[in-house]
Amino acid sequence: MNPQQKGPAKPRRRPVQSRSWQTSLAIQEAFVRLLAAHDYAQVTIRAIVDLAGVGLGTFYEYFGSKEELARVCLHLRAKRIVLAMDECLAQRRGEPIVDIVDALISVNVEHHRETPERWGPIYLLERHHSGRAAYREMYGRFVARWSRALLGAADAPHAAVVEEAAVTLQAIVYGLISHACIDEGEGIDFPGLMRRLRGAAHGYLATLGARDG
């Protein structure tokens, strides 16, 4: 999504070089860490730069406002999962549909395992700071990967049901993972979450087979 242009008129630095990129990541990381302990409204730019170890002017070289920083964090975290799903699909094409779906579920879960307590605030933030168009664009990227997974399976379902199935699988995965992050935080039962995700996905896939039959 394209961040809205706010703040100082001076063009903000594009974090192309390694050092610049690390500075941008430090600001993003500080923001997410603060969100894990405070409500969004309580997190100030001053607190972000203090935790990141950068100056206030440096913040505005990269982000025009706290709202823009929030949108960038949401976009980049979703992008990392999408890219991991692409890598998984490149390796799994032609396998049975259940195996491909299980692999993609694992990709999604693994991206939340290291710091689950930081994902709950991100999902809450997404619901308040992603406009409908931006949200639909992001969601559509995930749905496109599920469509590709279904069409590339050895036992691919009929093309007429692929779009509906892709939307449903994304709803299952996004819904259960985001709820676990918001409700359980760092106490997520990951084996139990995997069991619920696979059970729900497998049960739905079985209905596709019944319709094809």
UniProtKB/TrEMBL annotation:
The keyword DNA-binding applies. It comes from the Bacteria. Residues 44-63 bind DNA. Gene3D superfamilies: Tetracycline Repressor, domain 2 (1.10.357.10). Signal peptide: none annotated. It holds the Pfam family TetR_N. Residues 21-81 form the HTH tetR-type domain. InterPro entries: Homeodomain-like_sf, HTH-type_Tx_Regulator, HTH_TetR. Keywords: DNA-binding. This is TetR/AcrR family transcriptional regulator. It comes from Cupriavidus basilensis.
